[in-house]
Amino acid sequence: MSKSPSKTATDRNLRVEYYDWSRWLPALTSVAFALAVALVIARAISSDFLREAFDAVPGGDAAPHAGLPDTAVSLDLLCFLPALLVLIRRALDRTYVLRFSIAHALFLALALLAWVSTFWSADRFAAGVGGFHFLAAAAVCWAGSQLVRSWQRLRVIGAMAAGILAVIALQGIFYRTVELADLQRMIEKDKARIMAERGWTADSFAWKQFSRKVANGEMLGFYTSPNTTAAMIVTLAAIVAALAAQRLRDRDEPVWPIALIVVVLASLYVLYFTGARAALVTPIIAIALIAIGWKFGARLSQRRRTVFAAACGFAAVCTSGVIGHGLYHGTLLHDSLTFRWKYWLGSAAVFKDHWLTGVGYGNFGYSYLAHRLPEASEEIKDPHNLFVRAFVELGVVGGLLMIGFLVRLAWEITRPILPPSPTAQPALATKPGLGLVLAIAILASLLNTFAAIDFARDPGYVATELLRRLLMLGLLLLTFAAASVRSAKSVHLDDRPAPLLLLGLIAAVAVFLVHNLIDFALFEPGPMLLFALLCGALIGVRGESLAGRKKWNRASVALTGAALTAWLVALIAFVLPLVDAETRAQRGDDLLRANNPRAATAAYKYAFDNAPLRNADYAYRAGRSLIIENRDPAETELWLSQAIAANLKDGNYRLTRASFQLSQPDNKQNRRQIIADLQSAVALDPNNIQSRLRLAETFDRFGDRSKASEQYRKTIELNDQLNSDEPKRLPAADLDRIKLLIIK
After folding, report:
1. What are the tens digits of pLDDT across the range 704-719?
2. What does the pLDDT look like over 197-246, one tens digit per residue?
3. Residues in contact with 442: Cβ distance below 8 Å, sequence separation at least 6, in sequence order
4. Exposed e or buried b for every residue in 679-706, given b needs 16+ CB within 10 A?
5. What is the average per-residue pLDDT within 710-731?
6. What is the C-alpha to C-alpha distance for residues 648 and 531, in angstroms, rounded to an integer?
7. What is the per-residue pLDDT for 199?
């Protein structure tokens, strides 16, 4: 056997070098941070709708399909990615410690309860989609706590607020100065067509409300209500103003704080036209909180437990005082607050009936109608108070979780802890180039383009919207530079301590919650995601040191695997089927507008049969399409009945079926079902004058004079309880006609 050759000196000195791939692990969390911020920006400057505002009609205008559930849940799915990237880094990097606080746990529990309420909700589709928004917000909040642990990233959060505020201000100014006049002229010119397409009459409440809002120049923006726009402006302006003050205190070049102040002033112009009365008070609260924190923060932190307990006690006393005043006097301090009080009295009756589980997330409006006061004419979908909504929709457990989350959040974000100084951080984390903010601005613009533009529409519309997004991108880049670049001479992200910005963020969260005591901004997807990221960032920078914490390596790997599996299951079992169903339903609307009701019906049927959650609206649209097609009455009856079965608390479906039956020849009418449907609609909304009047007229038509007279009298009684200027009041001619029918 031959001997192996002896090793040479070169062989003995040979070294094997391994490529250190772990140095790229921080890139995972950098991407996660950029994605989280971009998603929040994109959602905050786009609209979200659960359903189309108006029913499609043959020959009607083809409205752009944007901000509907197919887009919304797709963006929600992306919102989970920052948290997944954080978990992946933790699974690969044992030195990276995660932070999970009690506030995180309570937020997640609240979100899970919202989604689980799908199983007992009347409108399962609304609960499922809304609950998915809530879960996405919880994921963003947790991810924000892991990703924002330095002054530099906190300043990027401030830059995000400046960018969103600038876009809201630009959109509002453009609407007031250009679009409003065009809209008013269009409505005046095409009044008859608009009313015909929507089934309105000159005396209908819907037309009166719509025309009055346009005539008064009500601020239309990215959100459901001008009050939400006001809440967002005050919240963001508090952050941007604090950031401008920080730059002034740091003696930065004047151009930077001046640019931020200009953004705030422009937003105040828009704020004025929202007409939100709460916005007269909340900016003062924000200024006061920042001033108190700056002047007395050190002293207050020395007696933190006592001060915190006193603040909670003060909040409890104020809440008790408001409730006591309302119960004793029957009113609150202002007409708008008195209206809210009436909403809350009706909500209390709903809670009494559903105190344990609630009516289901996003389902408040259906149950409220049966308990609203006669003088509270609005058919609201939200009680305009975050605590009332939590208790009514999610039961006593949900209400207590909401209280617990906000109390714990207040405790965690006011800890006397600051991020480490820049010198204590690795060089890579302190002075990156401007690629991060450039990537955030571009990604946010692309995501918003995807969410807000229907590319299947007219090329002129698409081109206009693309130009608008290009302008938004330029505005985002300018505001990001003004908020996050250190100076013109030192062009890199600012990493200096910013205690005024930190106070501004805390004040912003506080005033946002104050707005939500009388409004519903928190429960719109865009504002909710912004709130979640702000809370997460504050928990992150105020969090206790992670040094020396036990690293649960196996548990982290298992959690990462479980989270990835859950994300894939959500994609395959929920998001993709929902996107497919919603896309088919939107296609059905387009076909109906194109005078092809047969194909539209097929699209609606497919959407109803294949959606992951039963959506009564799809069945209702199929029934409407069959009515328009005037094909098979039995099939029409079937699909309207399916809509009713899928949501037993929506009285409109019963009214539609009754109207369809009444349109049939007398010998083919099911009179018992017609009366039952109308009586059910009245029971679901007993203070609805039009529903009760329809029931009275139907009794009269069927020859039951005594019951008709009874309903006519109740109609007049309800009408008399409305304010004299209420658009829902019956015209004098209708009242005279009804009185003659009673005498007859």
Report:
1. 999 999 999 999 999 9
2. 666 777 666 777 777 777 777 888 899 889 999 999 999 999 999 999 99
3. 473
4. bbbbebbbbbbebbbbbbbbbbeeeeee
5. 88
6. 34
7. 67
**Cβ–Cβ under 8 Å, residues 480 and 159:** yes
Please, are residues 121 and 360 in contact by the beta-carbon 8 Å criterion?
yes
Please choose, from the candidates 430, 564, 578, 417, the residue with its C-alpha nearest in 3D space to the C-alpha of residue 496: 430
Residue type, 18: Y
Q: Encode pLDDT of 484-532 as tens digits.
A: 998 888 788 889 999 999 999 999 999 999 999 999 889 999 999 999 9
Which residue's entry shows tokens 């929709």? Answer: 393
Share of the chain above pLDDT 70, in %: 93
Residue with tokens 């992670």: 546
Give the tokens for residue 607.
């959407």
Instruction: Find the range with the poorest average confidence among 504-518, 543-557, 570-584, 643-657.
Output: 543-557
| Residue from 623, 449, 454, 448 nearest 62 by CA | 454
H runs (alpha helix) in 219-303: 226-249, 255-274, 282-302
Q: Kindly report the backbone phi and psi dihedral angles of residue 249, in degrees, each rounded to the nearest multiple of 5, phi listed first.
A: -65, -35
Average pLDDT on 648-653 reads 96
Q: What is the mean pLDDT of the chain?
A: 90
- CA 386 to CA 402: how far, in whole Å? 8
Angle subtended by helix axes 732-743 and 705-720, to nearest 10 = 150
Cα dihedral sign, 379-380-381-387: negative
d(CA 342, CA 347): 9
Q: What is the CA radius of gyration of the chain?
A: 29
Rounded to an integer, what distance in angstroms lies between the CA atom of residue 208 and that of residue 224?
18
Decide if 312 contacts 354 (C-beta within 8 A). Answer: no
* Nearest one of 497, 153, 501 to 293, comparing CA atoms: 501
Beta bridge partners of 485: 493
pLDDT of 388 strictly over 90: yes
Give the three-state DSSP class for 493.
Answer: strand
For residue 240, CA distances in Å to 149, 269, 294, 404 come to 20, 16, 16, 29
Ramachandran region, residue 287 (left: φ > 0; alpha: ψ -120 to 50; beta: rest): alpha
Q: Are 89 and 25 contacting, i.e. CB atoms less than 8 angstroms apart?
A: yes
| Residue 610 and residue 577 in contact, taking contact as beta carbons nearer than 8 Å | yes
CB within 8 Å of 174: residues ≥ 6 apart: none
Give the torsion sign (CA, 442, 448, 451, 455). negative
Contact call for residues 544 and 415 (beta carbons, < 8 A): yes
Query: Which residues on neighbouring strands pair with residue 493, listed in sequence order?
Result: 485
Kindly report the CA angle at 184 between 179 and 187, in degrees rounded to 5?
120
What distances in angstroms separate CA 384 from CA 326, 409, 513, one per listed residue? 16, 21, 12
- This prediction's pTM: 0.93
pLDDT at residue 181 tops 90: no
Q: For the chain, how many helices (H) and strands (E)?
A: 32, 0
With a pLDDT cut of 90, the percent of the chain lying above it is 69
Tokens of 644: 């009713």
